[in-house]
Every structure is written in C-alpha cells, then in structure tokens.
C-alpha cells in the first residue's frame, strides 16, 4: 500500500484516429495538488474523465484512492469529487435540495444530509439562496453550488476541471482558499487550468500536456528554471546613454540587449544587480528603473505546450 | 477547518432501493414544483376528446358499431390508451432534459447504478401519467357524460391497462433517449411512430368501418389490442387481449431496459 491518491501509468485513449491521451503518467500523494496545464484539446479533460471512471482507458492503468478506475469504479466513485467544466446541478431543484439529494444518494440519512448541505451552503456563501431554484442562480453561484456538490461526501480525491472558468476575481480567490483548506485537510487535488497564475498559486507540481502527451513535469520553480532565466532590466533616462551603458555592462561580463531606452541582460542570481549598479556607476550613469525579471509560467507554457512532441 | 473534510464520517453509497426512491422523489419534486407540465399535457387529450366526441358521434349509428353504446363510452378508453402512449414519450424527453441539465453528469460520478437513474425516471413518469389519466377521467365523467357499462371496476381496469402500456413503451423511449440524446429528434421520431398507429387502429371507429388496406394494418397494430382490451373492460364486454397487452408491455420494458442501460453507460 502506498500513499499515492492518484496514480496513472501510461494511460492512452483514442477517439477514432485522434490520440487524445498518449501514454500519460501522473502521481499525486495525499494532501498535494497537481496542476494540469495545457491548451484546449491537449487532453486534460479526457484524463480527468478516465481518472473519474467516466471513460475507460484504451491502454495503461490508473488507480485513484487505492482503487482501479476500471475494475473498482464503484469504490473510486464513492471516494472522489468532480467539478467539471459545466455546472452539474439540477436546475429545477433549489441549492439545498441539490446537496441533500447527493448526500442521500451517498447514503446519508435525511437529517445528516440536511446538516451537511447546510454546512456547505454556509461555506460557499449560498445560505441566502438555499431555497431558490438553482436555475435562478448567477453563473458564479451555480459554479459554487457545483463545487459544493462535489464536496458533499468528504471525498479523498477531488478533480477540478477548469474550476474558475466564468468566475469573477473575488470568486476565483474564494475558490483558491477553499482548495487550500481542502489540501490542509489531506485531500488530494487534481486541477486542470488554462490560467497559469492559478497553477502557480495552488499546485505543488505541474504537468504540462500537449496533444495527449506530457511535455513537462515538475514543480513550478523547476519548470521556470527549465525554460527561462532571470533577467535584469535597466531603464535609462536618456536613450543617448544606452550604448555607453551597454558597453559598461559588457565589461562587467553581462550580455545586455537594448530596446528603446532600456537594457535587459540575463543573470544567474539576484546578486548581479549589484554588479549592474557598480558598472553603471563607473561610467557615471544612473538607472531610473531597475527590475529583476522572474520567468513566468507563461514562458513555460508558451515554450513547451506548443512543441509538437517532446523527445 | 472542520467543515470541509475533518468530520470524516464518510458515506460510501447506498443500496439500489434507496437510490431509486431518492431519485424518484427528486423527479416528482420537480413535477410538483412546476405542475404546468401535467396541466398542459392534459389539455391536448381533452381537446381531442371534445373534437372527436362531436365529429365522430354519428359513428355510433354506423354498421359494425356495438349496439346500444354511446360514442363517448366507446371513445374514452381509446383516448386513455392514446394519452398514455404519448405520455410515455415524455420519459425519454425527461431523460434527455436531465442530460442537458447537467445533473446526469453529476450522477455518473456518484456511486450509483445507471439502472436506478433509469428506473426512477420511469417510475416518476408513471406517477405523472397516472395523475394525467385520472384527471382526464374526472373530466370525462363530469363533463362528457362518460358512464360505461363496466362501472368503476371497468374504468379502473382500462386505466391500469393504459398505464401498463405507457410504462412498457416508456422504456422504449428511454432506450431511444439514451442513444439519441436529442429531445427534438425524440419528439419527431415519437410523433412519426405514434400518429399512424393511433388512427390505423380500432381507437376511433370499429375496424370494420375502415377501408380494406387500413383494416389490414389495424389488425396487426398492437395498439388495436390494447384499445380493444381497455374498451372491453370499460364496456363490460367479454375481455380478450389483456394478457397479450401486458406481455407485450413487459417485453418492451425488458428490451428497453437492457438497451437503455447500455446506451446510458456511454460517455456524455
């Protein structure tokens, strides 16, 4: 028995001639968040569907919460929560009735179900709208209800397929906080997203999918290190000073690139800011602005996700 | 934070019976909260009842028509069977609506059996059809002077048979819905299938009153047997075909069940 809550090995799935997943492996321990990044059609949702037993894989094996997703689908389903891209709630029922329904289907008594529904409505700021039909809810409210619905059974593993799509900034922040709390409680989370800041903020490790393959995997810091370097950007008051400044930086061993009245040079550590300042000082120049640039996940995403195939 | 997961009194799922019960309650709750559906679904057969009882009233004098029977008493059992048939289409439409609605996507990720979702759909539609038919009978008795020789027992028999037909046929539409997954297409297919069945039968005039080729169709039309059996019970005539109608409904339900579960398992 290992403590991996999600363990997929070489999962493949084709739709006709199109290879939606081509040998994907992921591993998520309890209390960890895996961010699955990729553009539309990269295979994110297909992987979620396989892991949540909705779609049988053609190849490979996957275990969730210790159970095989094909042979022990029922056990898997009783231990997971799924929030898909489209709110899976009954629009004819009120928010309260939706949650009670799910708790009852999971085996709660009516009293337990009402208790749990009340907790979740409170938590997701839906208590005031509890008795209104959910078709009258706003898009954000519906998504919150959907997320609440996936938490009814205290799942050990939660799948969030682009959970903040359609949420306003406050809604996104609220959702992030809830995910963080779930993780603190030991829940394993698999999150697919196109928002890089979301993966950066929430995920312990990130897997980048492209055309059904894993093109990169690692922590956010590892991926950034793999792609980009840190840079120092110096902005000068006068464009005429740029050649002189460039010369001084080159003497200091840097390789600046000029753009308008600014110079950008790759650096290996933040200590090289001092080198830059000294070099400029020697030629009597002063920077109006000095910035240390960190590579962003956007850089990772753009440089990796559009590669057709990683070797 | 305790409210999220710390109170790990986990629920692992529940038995088939509870699943069906909870899901049936769910569909009925939606029905009660919006009873327009029942009201409007009664309107159409009521209009048919009004028109046909006026238009075809002279049929009662035609040769081949049972002696001493009022046309309304002849017509009403057929209207019951027809309404029940049309109502069965709604089971399929309801399933497609649930698919669109997103709630089925939720059910599929829960530890419940596909069969319980379908059975619940079928049972709640049976309840809806019962309400609809009872409402129609009340109208027919109160307004149209429906008073067949079979009395209440005969009417109850005709009602029960209509419900059995509706239930069996409902499974066929559930199967079609599980595969087609398109409400408009379902309605069209259903209408195309049922409209000719309705008229090429003994529903509105005795078979002997139909042109020859239509008689041939009506003779093999299963609806003829259901209508004849329901009518015989209502009119206290010698009853034939009840067993046949029940067996046919049962067979449709069984085939529908197998195909519906199979279709339902396919990914959304």
TrEMBL record, chain A:
Pfam families: ABC_tran. It is a peripheral membrane protein. Residues 6-236 form the ABC transporter domain. The keyword Transport applies. InterPro entries: AAA+_ATPase (IPR003593), ABC_transporter-like_ATP-bd (IPR003439), ABC_transporter-like_CS (IPR017871), ABC_transporter_ATP-binding (IPR050763), DrrA (IPR005894), P-loop_NTPase (IPR027417). Its main location: membrane. GO terms for molecular function: ATP binding. It comes from the Bacteria. The keyword Secreted does not apply. It is found in: Cell membrane. Coiled coil: none annotated. Keywords: Antibiotic resistance, ATP-binding, Cell membrane, Membrane, Nucleotide-binding, Translocase, Transport. Belongs to the ABC transporter superfamily. Drug exporter-1 (DrugE1) (TC 3.A.1.105) family. This is ATP-binding cassette domain-containing protein.
Automatic annotation (TrEMBL), chain B:
It is found in: Cell membrane; Membrane. Signal peptide: none annotated. Pfam families: ABC2_membrane. Residues 36-267 form the ABC transmembrane type-2 domain. It comes from the Bacteria. The chain crosses the membrane at residues 37-56, 68-85, 131-149, 155-180, 192-214, 234-260. Its main location: membrane. InterPro entries: ABC2_TM, ABC2_TM_bact-type, ABC_2_transport, Nod_factor_ABC_transporter. Belongs to the ABC-2 integral membrane protein family. This is Transport permease protein.
């Amino acid at each position: 028995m290992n403590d991996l809550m999600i363990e997929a090995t070489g999962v493949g799935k084709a739709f006709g001639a199109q290879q939606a997943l081509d040998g994907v492996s992921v591993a998520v321990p309890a209390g960890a968040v895996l961010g699955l990044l990729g553009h539309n059609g990269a295979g994110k949702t297909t992987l979620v569907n396989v892991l949540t037993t909705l779609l049988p894989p053609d190849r490979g094996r996957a275990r969730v919460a210790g159970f095989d997703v094909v042979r022990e689908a029922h056990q898997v389903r009783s231990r997971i929560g799924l929030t898909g891209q489209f709110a899976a709630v009954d629009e004819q029922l009120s928010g309260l009735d939706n949650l009670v329904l799910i708790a009852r289907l999971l085996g709660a008594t009516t009293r337990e179900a009402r208790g749990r529904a009340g907790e979740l409505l409170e938590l997701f700021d839906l208590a005031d709208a509890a008795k209104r039909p959910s078709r009258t809810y706003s898009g954000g409210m519906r998504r919150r209800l959907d997320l609440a619905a996936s938490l009814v059974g205290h799942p050990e593993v939660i799948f969030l397929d682009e959970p903040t799509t359609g949420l306003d900034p406050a809604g996104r922040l609220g959702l992030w906080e809830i995910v963080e709390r779930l993780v603190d409680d030991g829940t394993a989370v698999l999150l697919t997203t196109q928002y890089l800041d979301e993966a950066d903020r929430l995920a312990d490790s990130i897997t980048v999918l492209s055309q059904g393959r894993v093109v990169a995997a690692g922590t956010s810091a590892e991926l950034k290190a793999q792609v980009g370097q840190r840079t120092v950007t110096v902005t000068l008051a006068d464009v005429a000073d740029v050649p002189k400044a460039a010369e001084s930086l080159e003497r200091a061993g840097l390789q600046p690139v000029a753009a308008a009245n600014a110079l950008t040079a790759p650096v290996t550590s933040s200590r090289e800011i001092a080198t830059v300042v000294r070099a400029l000082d020697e030629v009597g120049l002063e920077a109006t602005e000095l910035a240390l640039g960190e590579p962003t996940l956007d850089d990772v995403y753009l440089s990796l996700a559009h590669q057709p195939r990683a070797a | 934070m305790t409210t999220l997961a710390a109170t790990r009194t986990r629920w692992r799922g529940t038995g088939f019976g509870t699943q069906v019960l909870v899901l049936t309650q769910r569909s009925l709750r939606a029905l009660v909260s919006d009873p327009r559906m029942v009201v409007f679904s009664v309107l159409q057969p009521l209009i048919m009842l009004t028109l046909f009882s006026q238009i075809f009233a002279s049929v009662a004098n035609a040769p081949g028509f049972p002696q001493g029977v009022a046309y309304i008493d002849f017509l009403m059992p057929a209207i019951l069977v027809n309404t029940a048939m049309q109502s069965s289409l709604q089971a399929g439409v309801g399933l497609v609506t649930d698919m669109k609605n997103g709630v089925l996507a939720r059910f599929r990720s829960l530890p419940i059996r596909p069969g319980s979702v379908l059975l619940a759909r079928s049972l709640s539609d049976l309840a809806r059809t019962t309400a609809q038919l009872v409402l129609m009978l009340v109208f027919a008795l109160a307004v149209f002077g429906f008073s067949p020789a079979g009395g209440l027992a005969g009417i109850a028999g005709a009602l029960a048979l209509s419900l059995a037909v509706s239930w069996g046929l409902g499974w066929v539409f559930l199967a079609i819905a599980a595969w087609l997954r398109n409400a408009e297409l379902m309605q069209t297919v259903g209408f195309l299938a049922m409209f000719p069945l309705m008229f090429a039968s003994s529903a509105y005039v005795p078979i002997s009153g139909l042109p020859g080729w239509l008689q041939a169709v009506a003779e093999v039309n299963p609806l003829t047997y259901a209508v004849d059996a329901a009518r015989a019970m209502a009119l206290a005539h010698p009853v034939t075909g009840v067993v046949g109608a029940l067996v046919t409904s049962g067979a449709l339900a069984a085939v529908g069940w197998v195909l519906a579960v199979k279709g339902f398992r396919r990914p959304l």
